[in-house]
Write the structure tokens for this entry.
Amino acid sequence: NSGVYITHHQLDDLSQISTEKPKLMTRRLLDYFFSRETLARSSATGQRIAHNNTTMEKPIRLPIAVVGAIKEYVTNVCGRGCNFNAVINSKCGTSRRAVKKMSIRVDWMEGGNQQCPRTEVLTDRSEE
């Protein structure tokens, strides 16, 4: 009805999540529909109080049709919803931190083929 679809494989994967966990199901569906980078630039409503300090750009709103389909699916399957906006914003925040962390590592690596300090520590331990 919504025109929003997932693959059979994704549907099988989703069926492994307990219907008692609408938050987890919502987070998994967000992963199916959006890349980490898209989530990092987004929020549930297109607004957020805490902004990205590095770019200061206004977040984009995730497509209403997709978010609506996720909410409807989770509510129907789980028999109840959750605080969807809070779950979406939490997922977006997690994605922002992950993207920022990846960007810091890439910047470090491009700075003269040096290893990231954290990588050195892990490498040193594995050589012992």
Summary: The longest helix spans residues 84-110. The chain is about 60% helix and 5% strand.
